[in-house]
Amino acid sequence: MRYRLAWQSFFLVFLVGYMLVWILLPTKTYKNSWTPKMQKKLNSTYFREQGVNLLLLSFPPMLVAAVGCVYLHLHKKSSSAGSSKRSHLSMKRPAMVAAPLGIVNAVELAFAAMFVLLMIWSLANYLYVSFGHLHMHTPGEKVWQAKFRSVSLRLGYIGHACWAFLFFPVTRGSSLLPLIGLTSDSSIKYHIWLGHLSSLLFTLHSVGFIIYWWTMTDQMYLMLEWSSTYLSNFAGVMAFALLLAIWATSFDRVRRKMFEVFFYTHHLYSIYIFFYMFHVGVAYLCMILPGIFLFLIDRYLRFLQSRGSASLHSARLLPNGAMELTFAKNPELSYNTTSTLFVRVPSICKLQWHPFTVISNSNMEKDKLSVAIKPYGGWTQKLYKHLSTPLDHLQVSTEGPYEPASSHFLSHESLVMISGGSGITPFISIIREIIHKSTAEESGTKVPRVLLVTAFKNTADLAMLDLLLPLSETSVDLSKLELQIEAYITQEHERPVGDDKNQIEIKLFRPNPSDSPISAVLGKNSWLWLGAIISSSFLMFLLLLGLVTRYHIYPVEKRGDNYHYSYKLLWDMFLACASIFVATSAIFIFQKRNVSAEGNQIKNIELQTPTMSPSSWLTPSDRELESLPQQSLVQSTKVQYGARPDLKRILFDCKGSDVGVLVCGPKSMRHEVARICASGLAKNLHFESMSFDW
């Protein structure tokens, strides 16, 4: 379509221009040619030293984020009108499978190589320029000592460049990630890579200055300096101390064994950013401003959405400790498969939010949204025990759902979905989507053949397969569905005899008048309204910053007086936060009226007595299944005990020219499947990994 061609042309021009700015940033051309010429027009009275960097480093990403929202809105409308097409990225085949990077495809490898080359280029040019104009900061300072100081300073510059991209992967509702086919959960590994790299560079920068001040110049007192005319060294010391705490608790082993320590320590980032800004100054603040600005918009929208309580309709408690929570949702809310919903239960913990896969299908279940929860960790175990007690209502807050930009799984000729444990949950949503497509009224609807290979530890985990079909009053037609299920029980050699713990409990909850159905935070046209928030808040920030600088800061400096440097940074922080607060609140309140009106139309559900029913997969031979679709799925299932799936045999035996291979589960399983697909021995395999665990 025309808008796609226009967008691709715009994005290509932007990418080339923005890369040119980053390439020239550390060179003499930028410092001695571009900056002086542009300063005459931009830095005179309204923006002072921030003008050039605001134009070249802050404005372009904000423009793309705003325009990208319009593109995503048009793309969503066209996708809803027809079937979504598969991405044409042919380089998604795994190119490297190795620790500590995990599974890396050719596109990621190419961009990572370019980013590393850019960092090396920047460091080399910074050092070339600085070594040509060495400044001795103390009497008797030697040349090598001045160079040591210069290297330490420029390492901080490179770490700051990494920080410019750090917040983009964790901005869940941003338009920048879907524009390139990413989601916040699939791109979290980029945040981890950038976080480790920037932390290493900042540590070298800080240790270098400690060595310089302590052993070379005997000026350790400078660490406590808070200058009124330039950067604050003390703020840098405080930021470095917070960084060490955040970095030390973010390693994989600590995060797994002591998640709460990682979780709460990581939230020191707000204090860290506060001191960090005082240390980098107003000019270099412009480099990281887009990432922080978009993150703050997203964070504030999430706060507004999570203030209310979601209407919990029912809970399905499986015998293995897993749960399906079903919420009421606005019928206008639609989402793709493999979406994610963040859940908070105040009665268990008021601060913790946990992400879970949405297993319902927005086309099949218009007014309900379901998530699957497996009992891993203390929080989920407490939730299961809480739901097992007599309850008629449970207060739950939600954020999301956050969806991938498109769902291209259905375009394959056949699908092989390989899962381990709770990794089956994203595949439940895909299978439900395939069921919906196979029963659609349109003639000629073609769906792929599906092979689901799943590995469980115990027989009780087979109850997870009961989630393949929703708790719905309407019958589901599976006659057009080609589905084969191979289940492997790895820690048991035969089906347990006389196991009566196979009951599934279904509990219905009485809705509270204050509860609301899950809705899009900004209504039906959420991308357009997000674009309006981004553009209006950033323009408001620029306008207010220009007015404050022109009529408050400039007159002081014009008189020859010193305007405290830290006050300029405080103005930047305050005006950015105020602009985001005003623009976001205004649009959210305007949209909330429409969302509330639609939510009030959802009828209350009468409370019923909890029901118990045997799991279809745990006792298929002991009773005649009442549900014909359930019986069909059970008959399509082959269970093997005391064995693990032979993944190489399974994948190489796949017939057809276009086989989509999806894997979600333990790291070892994902890496094994990735290596098989990367070997090139089977050209028909198209790999994709789905997991929060990178």
TrEMBL record:
UniProt cross-references to CDD domains, sorted A to Z: NOX_Duox_like_FAD_NADP (cd06186)
Membrane topology of this protein: Multi-pass membrane protein
GO cellular component: membrane
Chief subcellular location: membrane
This protein's UniProt keywords: Ion transport, Iron, Membrane, Metal-binding, Oxidoreductase, Transmembrane, Transmembrane helix, Transport
Catalytically driven reaction(s): 2 a Fe(II)-siderophore + NAD(+) + H(+) = 2 a Fe(III)-siderophore + NADH
Cofactor(s) recorded in Swiss-Prot or TrEMBL: FAD
Pfam family, one: FAD_binding_8
UniProt KW Transcription keyword: no
Record-annotated FAD-binding FR-type domain positions: 305-408
PROSITE patterns in UniProt: FAD_FR (PS51384)
EC number: 1.16.1.7
Biological processes per GO annotation: monoatomic ion transport
Enzyme superclass (EC): oxidoreductase
GO MF annotations, alphabetized: ferric-chelate reductase (NADH) activity; metal ion binding
Subcellular localization: Membrane
Transmembrane segments: 7-25, 54-74, 95-121, 157-180, 192-214, 234-251, 271-297, 527-548, 569-590
Protein family membership: Belongs to the ferric reductase (FRE) family.
PANTHER family, alphabetized: FERRIC REDUCTION OXIDASE 4-RELATED, NADPH OXIDASE
UniProt-recorded name of the protein: ferric-chelate reductase (NADH)
Native source species: Salvia divinorum
